[in-house]
């Protein structure tokens, strides 16, 4: 399988926005290096290596303090690269794993000690072949005992079909990338209004970053801002933000992570909202236990 082109900006700008002390990038990844942490044989893409050292350097460059590292589909259920990154900075990192249904309780406990705080279910068919819902339910019941949550990634057209299952999960559910709304339909469109209705259930949290994936107009992503701003305003205690570095599968452009940080005061326009989004909420979900 050929290696995809590099998907991260080689020289991201220094943000003008100064993030609050203790700010968390609550959605980012590490890839490889493949020589040490091979990519999964069943992967649907092969990224350019983006190891932990690059992620931590970017964190410092952006003026952030902590990372929540999410296992990406290219590594499958082998979480070795993720665990390696967590152990390299145990006070400053937490993780979201993707696990095999046959994983042992001892392995889950080892992950917990390394800093894993949840598992991810990916329903985006162009990236993975989603598993049976009953298998996901059993995994959710097991990780509930550890105090973990579930992160879900899906696309807006699949919300109606998935909603009953997501509501039935026995744990907190964090939704990636605002449920990937159709930005052309606007915040008043039926799809996004259905998503807001789901969010009225207090078991759901949502990540409001990733405008580069949702935009039609391109940088600076003004067409996406109303969606994130609406969620931050209405659900201020259950929103998270992240860079999504190193932006896997981006084909339209190389996102400038400095620009992504500078979008924060546009979607969270007050210091109170910024502190909730970047510090209080991720600390409560990932560190305070």
UniProtKB/TrEMBL annotation:
Instruction: Report the superkingdom from the record.
Output: Bacteria
Where would one find coiled-coil regions in this protein?
A: none
A Pfam family found in this protein is Amidohydro_2
Residue span(s) of domain Amidohydrolase-related: 24-286
The identity of this protein, by name, is: Amidohydrolase family protein
Taxonomic classification: Bacteria, Pseudomonadati, Pseudomonadota, Alphaproteobacteria, Hyphomicrobiales
